[in-house]
Design brief:
Length: 55
């Protein structure tokens, strides 16, 4: 994540504009991996259904 944020010139420009224009009061970028699911979403289990997995 650090390499993307600070190694990409286009993203660096957005970071600079964000700070100049005060777009955010707080920032948090996080990546979570679920360890358990309960129930379904539209009859799909988000943890097991490959169509819903991003990683």
């Amino acid at each position: 994540m650090h390499n993307y944020a600070y190694g990409n010139p286009l993203h660096m420009e957005v970071i600079k504009k964000t700070r100049e224009l005060g777009w955010y009061a707080e920032e948090l970028f996080a990546n979570f991996i679920p360890y358990r699911t309960e129930g379904t979403w539209g009859n799909l289990d988000p943890h097991l259904d490959k169509k819903l997995q991003i990683l």
